[in-house]
Automatic annotation (TrEMBL), chain A:
Protein name per UniProt: ABC transporter permease
Lineage: Bacteria, Bacillati, Actinomycetota, Actinomycetes, Kitasatosporales
Entry keywords, A to Z: Membrane, Transmembrane, Transmembrane helix
Positions of transmembrane segments: 21-42, 62-84, 105-131, 151-173, 180-197, 233-254
Annotated organism of origin: Streptomyces omiyaensis
From TrEMBL, chain B:
Entry keywords, A to Z: ATP-binding, Nucleotide-binding, Transport
Organism: Streptomyces omiyaensis
Matches recorded under CDD domains: ABC_BcrA_bacitracin_resist (cd03268)
Molecular-function GO terms, alphabetical: ATP binding
Biased composition (Gly residues): 326-339
Keyword Ribonucleoprotein set for record: no
Domain spans labelled ABC transporter: 2-227
Superkingdom field: Bacteria
Compositionally biased spans, kind Low complexity: 308-325
Keyword Cell cycle part of the UniProt annotation: no
Protein name, per record: ABC transporter ATP-binding protein
């Protein structure tokens, strides 16, 4: 058996020696923080225009995470490219000849890339939170308030899991282009649109992004959003089921299909 | 030592590799020959456990590939030249592989030096030419200093200097006692490098023989005769105990005879000869004849096998293959007209 620490080291070298790692992860941080800051500033100035319901459920923590809708797409691209370029470059054959144990290969890669995505996700969510609160002025909350730390750490976990979910999907589809063509519209459009359509939104509540993002809300049903039949941890658990399913699917494809 | 036992790969109803069983022995270069699409690459991918066989097994020193501890130290392979991440430098591409098998970092520099890529070690590999990509692939195969090396079509797309370099590299690796398994679709290339020959066609084993035996059995030498008095000439030759084959276009072929003897015989019977020449069938023809049979066997009477009936072509066969030995002996060449 190939030694797991050696394979982890090898996968770390793969990740740090391609430029796509830097630009995808940098985009995730910059887009999320900048957009969160902009919306925080906007809401501060237009707080009085909000409806009574929105003011009653105003969630300054969740507002500062508004940029994740866009920033998560960079995480999707990072996750897809980590796995997908093995296939598009033909490197997969060389990689599997070096590490023929499929589980060791795939899960070492995902562990290294997932840990990096989680770390970058946490940095992003803390930056977004503090910058957002600074811009919200008198509507701000503090990290010490009830459930706020859970939401901020949860925001980082959410971004990490979005990346890991994308890695599993790319392993199943064995193509960067195909994976991006499905995941980007799904997270950016389909999930957002369906969550606003009656009936469809009952299903959309169980999508990985809809369920997982509940962890970032401090106020339940923040800003008059849809009531969910699960709490923040329940939502995260639903997202974890999606992630587990994509990883299992990715592993089975790698194990069964010819490289 | 690599052992294949009944290795089979089917894609739907198409059988790409059909019950292949053979051994690849150490200390020599084993050539793996077959026309394009014969199943060479599929076989090699199954040997590396990249493709799952439909049935049959491959054992490397008695073990399945997946059971090898740090496989790059046992077996190195060049499958296709571009099997690297183009955005990574040559050095980093090799470093990833080295680390996964706990090969010391210093070895990366050594193999880059060995293949002559030191100057471009820090360049992104997507800018590499085919030849440079091939060298990088060979560097990755040599990384673990393995006892077994596999090269899939290593001379493809290389310039003569590169081809020469790979030939010599394979020979020196074999002389160190390593097992070298190299595929090609060119008989002439194999004749120059291989000690042992495995020929497949349509996924089936057609020959498993030493190169020397293959040359001896397949480079048939014969004498070609053409005469306006063909009927009489044939009778005379028959009467003298020669086996005569009619080769079409009014030519006769006689196995195992010298031009001297046949010329004298014709003169003694006052027969006019328009041609009297020593011929030698090329190995390329022998190979094509062998694989054409396999092709025809499967292509149920479509009538046009892919080799276009080349073995029966009346051209000067002796010169078709350069390099490995133009026909020796007296009277070679299309000389001796009108004795």
């Amino acid at each position: 058996m190939a030694a797991v620490p050696a394979v982890l080291q090898s996968e770390w070298t793969k990740i740090r020696t391609v430029s796509s790692t830097v630009w995808t992860l940098a985009s995730a941080v910059i887009v999320t923080v900048a957009m969160g800051a902009a919306l925080s500033a906007l809401l501060k100035s237009s707080f009085d225009d909000l409806s009574d319901l929105e003011r009653a459920t105003f969630d300054p923590t969740f507002v500062s995470f508004s940029g994740m809708v866009l920033g998560q797409l960079a995480m999707v691209v990072f996750g897809v490219l980590v796995v997908g370029t093995e296939y598009s470059s033909g490197m997969i054959r060389t990689s599997l000849a070096a590490v023929p144990q499929r589980a060791t290969f795939l899960f070492s890669k995902i562990a290294v890339a997932g840990a990096l995505a989680l770390l970058v996700g946490l940095v992003t969510s803390f930056l977004s939170f503090f910058l957002g609160q600074a811009l919200l002025g008198e509507h701000r909350t503090t990290i010490g308030a009830d459930n706020v730390l859970r939401a901020v750490v949860g925001g980082g976990i959410y971004m990490g899991l979005i990346a890991v979910f994308s890695m599993g999907v790319a392993a199943m589809l064995r193509s960067s282009m195909l994976s991006l063509g499905i995941l980007v519209p799904f997270f950016f459009l389909i999930s957002q649109i369906l969550s606003a359509v009656p009936k469809a939104k009952e299903v959309a509540k169980y999508f990985p992004d809809q369920a997982g993002s509940k962890i970032m809300q401090v106020v339940p049903d923040a800003l008059g959003s849809e009531k969910a039949p699960y709490g923040p941890w329940g939502g995260l658990a639903i997202m974890l089921v999606w992630v587990a399913a994509s990883l299992l699917g990715g592993y089975l494809v790698l194990k069964r299909r010819d490289a | 030592m690599i052992e294949l036992d009944g290795l089979t790969k089917r894609y739907g109803t198409k059988t790409a590799v059909d019950h292949l069983s053979f051994r690849v022995r150490p200390g020599m270069i084993t050539g793996f020959l077959g026309p394009n699409g014969a199943g060479k690459s599929t076989t090699m991918r199954m040997m590396l456990d990249l493709d799952n066989p439909t049935s049959g097994t491959v054992r490397i020193d008695g073990r399945h590939y997946r059971e090898l501890d740090e496989p790059l130290k046992y077996i190195g392979a060049l499958l296709d030249a571009k099997a690297m991440h183009g955005g990574r430098s040559a050095h980093n591409n090799l470093l990833c592989l080295a680390q996964s098998n706990r090969i010391p970092r210093s070895r990366v520099g050594e193999v880059l030096d060995l293949v002559g890529l030191t100057a471009v070690a820090r360049k992104k590999s997507k800018g590499f030419s085919l030849g440079m990509g091939q060298r990088l692939g060979i560097a990755s195969a040599l990384l673990g200093d393995p006892e077994i090396l596999m090269f899939d079509e290593p001379v493809n797309g290389l310039d003569p200097e590169g081809i020469h370099w790979i030939r010599n590299l394979m020979k020196s690796l074999a002389s160190e006692g390593r097992t070298i398994f190299v595929s090609s679709h060119l008989m002439s290339e194999m004749a120059l490098t291989a000690d042992h020959l495995i020929v497949i066609g349509q996924g089936k084993l057609l020959a498993d023989t030493s190169m020397a035996d293959f040359i001896q059995q397949n480079s048939r030498s014969f004498v070609r005769l053409r005469s306006p008095q063909q009927e009489r000439l044939r009778d005379v030759l028959h009467a003298d105990g020669f086996v005569v084959v009619e080769a079409g276009n009014g030519t006769l072929e006689v196995d195992g005879a010298s031009t001297d003897r046949l010329g004298e015989l014709a003169a003694a019977h006052q027969l006019t000869l328009h041609e009297l020449s020593a011929q030698r069938a090329s190995l390329e023809e022998a190979f094509m004849q062998m694989t054409a049979g396999a092709v025809e066997y499967h292509a149920h009477g479509t009538g046009t096998d892919v080799h276009g009936g080349a073995p029966a072509a009346p051209g000067p066969a002796w010169g078709a293959n350069s390099g490995w030995g133009a026909a020796p002996g007296p009277g070679s060449g299309p000389t001796g007209e009108g004795v």
